[in-house]
TrEMBL record:
Family to which the UniProt record says this protein belongs: Belongs to the UPF0749 family.
Identification of the protein by name: DUF881 domain-containing protein
A Pfam cross-reference name: DUF881
Cellular component terms per the entry's GO annotation: plasma membrane
Classification via InterPro entries: DUF881
Source organism superkingdom: Bacteria
Species the sequence originates in: Streptomyces pacificus
Length: 229
């Protein structure tokens, strides 16, 4: 028994390497690092946006293009999501269930994953809004473009280098009736509604008369995809 206890102590010593095995300090440090990097990315986004506006202003002044070419370029910028977009809109807000959430009568007791917003829930909302004819979509304070990826790590959203916590808001400019019909018809959202009913996940849809979505101001370089030949 003494030999076995000695082996356990030696193994623990080599594993810990002088640190406390029962602490969450490493996770807290990682969380702090992610939050710090998120703030730094936000500041870099603002700086990049200001520089891009200067470059575009100089390009418009010196490009020698015709009025028709400029109009075509503006239309392409609107379609690409790099210009502001205003109009009637629908906003969808998703939230984790309350901390003390209990199952509604007739439903099994919830597991941890039943009480939080997942990546597929946000993706379902974004996809349904596009399906409903959205002219532009914004998640939190960022405009989506064709290369945007909605990703969740744990219970946080990572979008274009920045980190967000729930509640999550998705806003789409378009015909409110079509947008709401698309949300209602989505099988993935119908499944999400079961969890809203069973465990109290947050779900709110608001129609808004006039909304202005910001233009996307980040990089548009492709790092992995290649143009089709």
């Amino acid at each position: 028994m003494f030999a076995l206890a000695g082996m356990i102590f030696v193994t623990s010593f080599h594993t810990a390497k002088g640190t406390n095995l029962r602490t969450d300090d490493s996770l807290l440090k990682l969380s702090d690092l992610i939050e710090q990097r998120g703030h730094e990315n936000a500041e870099l986004d603002r700086s990049t946006s200001a520089l891009r506006e200067d470059v575009e202003a100089l390009a418009r002044r010196d490009d020698g293009s015709t009025a028709a070419e400029d109009a075509r370029l503006r239309a392409l910028e609107v379609a690409a999501g790099t210009e502001k977009l205003s109009g009637r809109a629908v906003s969808v807000t998703l939230h984790d269930a309350p901390a003390n959430a209990q199952a509604a009568p007739g439903y099994p007791e919830p597991q941890a994953n039943d009480l939080v917003i997942h990546q597929q829930d946000l993706q379902a909302v974004v996809n349904a809004l596009w399906q409903g004819g959205a002219q532009g979509v914004q998640v939190m304070d960022q405009r989506l473009i064709s290369t945007s990826a909605v990703r969740c790590v744990g219970n946080t959203l990572i979008l274009q280098g920045r980190v967000y916590s729930p509640p999550y808001q998705v806003t789409a400019v378009g015909d409110p009736d079509r947008l709401q019909a698309a949300l209602t018809a989505s099988p993935a959202i119908q499944n999400y509604q079961l969890y809203v009913k069973a465990y109290g996940l947050g779900w709110k849809v608001d129609e808004r008369e006039t909304v202005t979505l910001p233009g996307y101001s980040g990089t548009v370089d492709l790092h992995y995809a290649k143009p089709a030949q």
